[in-house]
Amino acid sequence: MQYITSIINGFLKDQPKANKIGCAVILAILALPVILILLPLIIWKTISFLTYIKVDEEPSKQDYVKRAEWLREKVIVAPDELINAMPSAVGSHYQGEWAIYSLAMTSMSLVNISKLYPEYTETYQQDIKKMIDITMSPAIQAYDAQQWGESPLESLDGNKDHMSYLSLLAWMITNYKFIGGDTEYDDLLHRICEALHRRMLAAPDLNLKTFPRTPIFIPDMMVTIVALNNYAQLYDGKYADMVQRWLDKAKTEWIDQRTGLLAAMIYDNSRSNGKFSVCGSYAGLTCYYLSLVDEKFAYQQYQCMKQHFAQEGFITGIKEYKGRANWLDFHIDAGPLLFGYSPSGTAFAVGCATYYEDWQFRNGLLRTAELAATTIYGRKQRHYLLGGYVPVGEAITLAMKTHHRTYQHAKLKY
Known about the structure:
Layout: H1 2-13, H2 17-50, H3 61-75, H4 79-84, H5 92-116, H6 121-135, H7 138-148, H8 163-178, H9 186-202, E1 216-217, H10 218-234, H11 240-253, E2 265-266, H12 280-291, H13 295-309, E3 310-311, E4 317-318, E5 328-331, E6 335-338, H14 343-355, H15 359-373, E7 375-377, E8 382-384, H16 391-401
Antiparallel strand pairs: 1-2, 3-4, 5-6, 7-8
Helix pairs in contact: 2-15, 3-5, 3-16, 5-6, 5-7, 5-8, 5-16, 6-8, 8-9, 8-10, 9-10, 10-11, 10-12, 12-13, 12-14, 14-15, 14-16
């Protein structure tokens, strides 16, 4: 803005005195349409932010179902169409990764809604089945296959990790079965979970890699633990011992001593000094996944995340980095960081805020989401304006908003 102003001032300065008033009038006329376009948008966003004051202690059926309707239309499409719906600026690899996360998080949203409102179960079963089929397509597999040099589904007898793709697919299949899905994918589920279990036994510290040249990403590894834990619930406790072994190591070996948070990433040179990489987006996602496996540990992590990364007040959210914040930055998994706030971290935090009934904090997070993304209201559908550009963000936010504890576990005291 300062640059534009200097150009205008320079332009006026160079004009003869008699023409300055006329030039200023012309510039004002030219600027008027821009002002008329932007002013309603500014007023709209301000009103939507200031009027978002309800502390939503009960599930919001209308909001959940309308947002799910929009996601179903956007996600249940041809695999290439779904991939191309992701921002091209992030590159083909992340387009593929965001596509499978859109599928996984949308399916989780539908499971959550089905358990809150059983009348939707039959319809959503069929939708999740379609999403599993899309996930199994070569196009969706490609983000993983290109990194490992082989198909994740055609190499289940092999030793390469393929942790990301296989864990997300297994998570989707187990969720499908949790709401009464049929046995069509049972054999594949058995093979995937056997492969993940076998590879964990052969891996250092029981951790698998997302891709060959990456550190251990604990949030990604958490999907493996959730999938195996779900499998254990479906099949008489099989692999439950592995889940517990991993959790025991997490609680004793991978906690960052400075924050009390589970590590975001583990590098070879950070395994024994008690100092690990932590950040808001990964902490929020890890807390969410932990709540599906070990809710007491998840609650402890949630409190640590709030202590070190939460900012509460007029704008409530999760900061991406502890102790530093540029006014504008970018992280591929967190999104654009304006004044240090993490879009992904803030969205993921809604999950545990919902699960642990932290209504005031949840309300603040959703006010911030409304300010940043702005809900578009339709007769049958509803979505954030930014969801049209980044569908994965819409899917994640709905999965977090619908993560109510009432249908999953008896309420515990903390």
